[in-house]
Amino acid sequence: MDNKTIYALSTVYGKSGVAVIRISGKDAFEVINKMTALPAENVRPRYAHFVKLHHSQTKQLIDNCLLLYFKAPNSFTGEDIVELQTHGSRAVINSVLDSLSSIPDFRLAEAGEYSKRAFYNNKMDLTEAEGLADLIDSETAEQQKYALRQMEGGLKNLYDDWRENLLKILAHLEAYIDFPDEDIPSDIEDDMKNNVFKLQKAILEHLNGDSCGERLREGFRVVVVGPPNAGKSSLLNAVAKRDAVIVSDIAGTTRDAIDIHLDLKGYPVIFTDTAGLRETEEEIERKGIEIAYSKIDDADLVVCLFDASKDSVQLFENIQNAFKNKAILVANKSDKLTNEQSSELEKQGCLVISAKQHDGVSVLLDKIASEIANKFTSGSNMLITRRRYKEALGECLDNLQRFSFDKEIELTAEDIRLAAREIGKITGRIEVDEILDKIFGSFCIGK
Known about the structure:
The protein is α/β, with parallel strands linked by helices and 447 residues long.
């Protein structure tokens, strides 16, 4: 990362009421000197100044705009920032960007560079930066809520606390390495063992969160399975409230898995329609059925749908046994059943619906939302949202499990040092240049 002053459009390019252009770096104040007539002594930090904006070279009037100055280190990046709020026409935006490009040592910001500079200037750690990225990408209320918690330091505080405990243990061990003639008192040794054991337990519980954090970012998977003509496609259309899937009385119409993305009470949910489960010699349909079974393995919930007017719930006995905690039995075509038949199916634990008539579909959606909410809240209060967190914590746990006083104390200390290092990788407490570009490269240009 160089020391040049960077600039970028932070709002969407195109026709809009207001466009925001941010300038960050040691020479950001030069924008005020070169593009406005505002005297330097009159510039107040965090105060909106109404100014006429001129091109830095031609001095031609570009626009009337609001100018805000954020003095380092009290800014998003920790550097001087000047923010220009202009009218959002393409002509104005292009003129401002052209003017900025003409100022010496100014350059266009790279993707995520503002957030990267904030990280380097200790304004946020990597978990907070990734929480910010999740907030920008959030599409549902729960994604927004959790991203805010992470951006405000929820995961950072948890991981920093674990790392601090490890560093305290490491400090004790290194003290005895420096004085090899001294034996470690038994009470201090027991205390260290106890702390490592408690930390192991906490990390293991954190890792056993059923990938709910990743699911919250990417979507909880609900797979609809059943025999041909059970009404799976009709159910997906009823859920989507549009004709998203082809509906036909011809068995085997659905050959591939079809995904529909929905916001279900704040949770991102991916409903998947699958090929009808049956024995077949037709090669393409057979491959579709194989895909259906692979989708079941990856699913968070499986909606086992059957035509209650002709099929039995016993069809799903194998799925129920294999996926007991994620199977929802749904009897379709209630419009063809008597009240007594419906009551009997309900006693067997089935939800009775008519996908075609949209009867009972809302009850099924409430059931799915409830199951997801219980799954989401049953784990740790802070969830693992990135695979790299899980990998680093797994390595940390491996090192802690090797911890023992039955070997040379230098090796015992090394186990703790490596464990602390793995946690440091998550927050950026150690040198992690190899992952920084990957993390911040996913941000938009103006962030």
